[in-house]
Specification:
heterodimer; A: Rossmann fold; Ubiquitin-like (UB roll); 7-stranded antiparallel beta sheet; 5-stranded parallel beta sheet; 19% helix; B: 198 residues; alpha/beta; 5-stranded mixed beta sheet; 12 strands
Chain lengths: 321, 198
Amino acid sequence: MSTGTTKLDVVVSDVVPINDLVTRFHFRRRDGELLPTFSGGAHVVVEMRDGDRTRLNPYSLMGSPLDTREYTISVRRDDVGRGGSLFMHRQVKPGLEMVISYPVNLFSLDLRAKKHLMLAGGIGITPFMAQTSQLAGAGGNFELHYTCRTASLGTYADVLQQRYGNRVRLYHDDREERIDLDRLLSSQPLGTHLYVCGPAGMINWVRDRAASLGWPSETVHFEHFAAPQPGAPFDVTLALSDKTIRVGEQQSLLEAMEAAGVDPPYLCRGGVCGQCETNVISSDGKFIHNDHWLSEEDHRSGCKIMPCVSRFEGKSLVLER
Amino acid sequence: MAAKTIISRPIYGTLSPQPGKHHLFIADAEGALAIIDMAGKAPPGFFEGAEIVFIPGPEGKHIAALEALKPAQLHIAPSFASLLPRLRQTLTNAHMGLRLYLAGTEGLIGQAMQVALEAGMDHTSMQTEHRGSLARRMQCVHCKGITENVTTQPALCAHCGLLLLVRDHYSRRLAAFQGVCINAEDRTENPPMEEAFP
């Protein structure tokens, strides 16, 4: 059961290639009505029906929250992933009818902040597209620092600079431009909130430096949807449903449960929201935790697993599902 | 330490050194002892980046003990009202990395927190420790007047004179407990006034 994820019947209204890796998709409601209101940082889960296989991937909404005639997402092509982004790039064309979830926000702005400091890496720019539109409309105080590999892969860098001028600062890896993070974090006025979205390494680096420099954890917000990693197949016993299932190489544990007719709650399917947290009844083997939800202590204890992104290697695993 | 009765009733902890670039302590009377106790757990050099603002109160104790911590600055103030402009100025000019430590009476903690909230700090990111008197700062919900240092239950509103039940219902915005008329039905009924917040 997908908690809170009431479905929206939409049609793809436009497909716009942005650069070598990123394509933007526009969705409108099939009945022509307005889409539900959302706030900057929200994501939707897109259902990709690919033959007999259905993938459900989360993508941040990047349009202005002030305009709900359409939703837009940007998808970075991942040639070695599980195929969701390739499906979007190759098979989704204008006019295709699709199903997406209602928007859910796990990365919202704290509007009590005096200033919003945003750090984006690569495709992590997308939630900031919506957040900057929201703040600019309300006269909000923000500053965006955006790291990309090269200028041509700086997705929307031109749009952002045009809209917000020197409130946007770009850093290009190929020109050896680096954020002077300690200096940036130490020069922010009291009451600033920090938002970071990008690769896991960047998020960890920023969170770690912010904590060391005295930023309270309440002021540091981050979002990183972990894509479920492929891995060796493994067997799982679902004690409450009295089923034993096999998780395929390209399948997540959550997807395998759903395929067996068991419906755990979910929201993000990216190891962030905590909805699908599942208790482990017994295990003999090694957990491969890929989530950002459970504490390190939970990871070590082997008592809990996030089936949307985490896997298992070993002899036996029994879950309370 | 106050017991949790309803969700708005503040709970205080024990001061502990936080990572940060600057440390601002605000304390009154026996709150100084919370700072001195914490100093035992602080890393070497911690107080070189610290400022202590202290209201000694009528007994005037603990100043020498705070001086002995060798903070970068020690500012002694006669009252909270007198340190308010300085505190506002400090917070206005402060950067992220400043950590706030509040110790002493509930009135002091609440009022300092109120100023810090206005400066954009989150209440959960401040270290607090209650020491000394349990006296409350109370808002009369009828006339909105604030009465300081309320120690009795019920208590008289210093502004409109109503006899008020001092509730655990607390407002962080006002830094005050709510006082509600205890004999609104029959004003001749006067429950005995007891010393409840010594």
